[in-house]
Write a structure and sequence with these properties.
Elements: H1 3-14, E1 19-20, H2 23-29, E2 43-46, H3 50-63, E3 67-70, E4 87-90, E5 97-100, E6 105-109, H4 114-122, E7 126-127, H5 140-146, H6 153-156, H7 159-162, E8 163-169, E9 175-179, H8 192-195, E10 204-211, E11 213-214, E12 219-226, H9 229-241, E13 248-252, H10 254-264, E14 272-279, H11 282-298, E15 301-307, H12 310-321, H13 323-330, E16 333-336, E17 339-340, H14 346-360, E18 363-369, E19 374-381, H15 385-404, H16 420-429, H17 434-446
Parallel strand pairs: 2-4, 3-4
Antiparallel strand pairs: 1-2, 5-6, 6-10, 7-11, 8-9, 8-10, 12-14, 12-15, 13-14, 13-18, 16-19, 17-19, 18-19
Helix pairs in contact: 9-11, 9-14, 10-13, 14-15, 15-16
Bound molecules: flavin-adenine dinucleotide.
């Protein structure tokens, strides 16, 4: 079906104000946080309700037009990059949030920003457990579709672990609810978790119900500086091994800190950093912060600071917040990798990153939610040409090595366009290549005409 016909039919179905075919807008939507490829869609639909989504999916299914659901386009692996001749459904107009305090549940529509949901929960003394670094931009629908994690992953896991129910529109326009606003449900196959992390390839998630957790009343922060990057990684697993249960455990290597100082005018010791937040009642907070500091010193930290002063805590966190923007500002082309390994394998993986970085002669810094074994290699390139010749092979080596260590090629960013070959590699290494076929069969059940985000996750 040609562009003009698709656009006119969509306008008839939804009203012209919800359908965008302006070339400038199509150009803007052709970009996402995945700078490797871009593609313009046929049209963009701004969805204001589940019914809007259902109308689009009915039409698209009948006429075999590809559909790409979209939140804010912050996926760094091309999951939300439009596909050729597709309709992009932008869910961001769907932003309703309802906090149900007595039941400890927050309901949010797919287009609500994660940060917005968190702020709403905090009005009632609760918080939203999952906090991706992109929370101000990432939407609930995008976070569900990617099974996003974040800083508090060490404590609360990913979206999968906090979601109670979702509403989904299937190709053809049927609306189903999987799970709901209850903390337990034992009613057969767990289809909800098939949709979480499905990267928009099965249907469009229009809203969800989530657990809220109490917002911490007293929090302290320990920041440790290490001369040696492997010692820093060791420090992280020592904290876990000794049974501490921090709210966050973040890691950043000296390459990132040096660059952040230079580019963002900061003044941090140019060493490998571990940042740990502990939330405990006031009476035991200081003594626990001291214990954590001692463990980090024993692991090789040359300097450790701890504080419960909110301003000082915020100041100490600036460098972590600036890590990704620093790389984006310092290099003409940058990319954020993703891997997850068992905690005891963290020192091995940081060592590997250094080796691979010098082998290919490119800058690779490291940040990560290290408390759950999740690291993001930050690659900085002088030109996009270096992507295929240097950066991609380097990342394939690094993320591939995490498989050897018993880990995985993605902790939270997903597969998208970028990691389809690595997913196959991982399944082969686990002698589980047949899983790909099961995934294809699942896709055929929900999306028999293959209209949902084709070419992503699996072929
Ligand atoms: C600086 C930066 C920091 C980041 N930090 C983190 C982090 O800490 N943790 C983390 O997990 N990720 C992180 N990310 C990656 C990204 O922000 C997350 O994957 C996020 O959840 C994507 O949300 P979005 O709204 O931008 O989704 P989009 O990028 O628009 O979409 C992502 C995928 O979800 C699908 N999708 C979107 N909405 C729906 C819907 N309603 N129904 C079905 N499918 C849908 C899309 O088709 C696509 O496949 C980061 C990215 C950047 C650029």
């Amino acid at each position: 079906m040609g562009r003009e016909l698709v656009v006119s039919r969509l306008k008839e179905l939804l009203g012209s104000e919800k359908v965008i075919d302006d070339p400038e807008e199509l150009y803007v939507y052709s970009y996402t946080a995945y700078a490797v490829v871009r593609e313009e869609p046929l049209a963009i639909v701004k969805a204001f309700s589940t019914e809007d989504v259902a109308k689009v999916l009915k039409f698209a299914n009948e006429h075999r037009v590809p559909v790409v659901p979209r939140g804010s386009g912050t996926s760094v692996i091309g999951a939300s990059t439009p596909v050729k001749d597709s309709i992009v459904i932008d869910l961001r107009p769907m932003r309703r949030i309802v906090v149900d305090v007595p039941n400890g549940v927050v309901e949010a529509e797919a287009g609500a920003y994660v940060d917005e949901v968190d702020r709403e929960c905090r009005k009632y003394g609760f918080m939203f457990p999952v906090d991706p670094a992109s929370a101000e931009a990432a939407t609930i629908g995008g976070a569900l579709a990617m099974d996003a994690g974040g800083m508090r992953g060490a404590r609360y896991g990913t979206m999968r672990h906090v979601t109670l129910g979702i509403e989904v529109v299937l190709p053809g326009g049927n609306v189903i609810t999987l799970g709901g606003p209850v903390y337990k449900q034992a009613t057969g196959y767990d289809l909800m978790h098939i949709f979480i992390g499905s990267e928009g390839t099965l249907g469009v998630i229009t809203r969800g119900w989530f657990k809220m957790v109490p917002a911490p009343k007293s929090v302290g922060r320990v920041v440790a500086y290490f001369d040696n990057v492997e010692d820093a990684a060791r420090g992280v697993y020592e904290i876990r091994r000794r049974g501490f249960a921090p709210l966050i455990i973040e890691f950043m290597d000296d390459i990132v800190v040096k660059l952040a100082n230079k580019i963002k005018g900061l003044n941090f010791p140019e060493k490998n950093m571990v940042i740990i937040d502990i939330d405990l009642p006031k009476e035991v907070l200081s003594s626990t912060l001291n214990e954590v500091a001692e463990v980090l010193k024993a692991a090789g930290a040359s300097e450790v600071r701890s504080t419960t002063d909110p301003d000082e805590m915020a100041r100490l966190y600036v460098v972590r917040k600036q890590a990704y923007p620093t790389f984006a500002a310092a290099f003409p082309f940058s990319f954020m990798g993703d891997l997850s390994v068992p905690l005891s394998a963290l020192p091995a993986v940081v060592k590997k990153v250094r080796e691979v970085s010098s082998k290919y002669g490119i800058t690779i810094g490291l940040i990560g939610h290290a408390g759950d074994g999740n690291l993001h290699p930050l690659v900085g390139l002088q030109s996009k040409d270096e992507w295929w010749s240097k950066a991609r092979p380097a990342l394939v080596e690094i993320e591939g090595y995490s498989i050897e260590l018993g880990g995985t090629i993605s902790g939270e960013h997903g597969v998208g366009i970028e990691r389809k070959d690595l997913l196959i590699k991982e399944l082969r290494a686990r002698r589980s290549e047949v899983v790909l076929e099961y995934m294809r069969q699942i896709k055929r059940i929900f999306d028999p005409n293959g209209i949902m985000n084709p070419g992503k996750l699996i072929d």
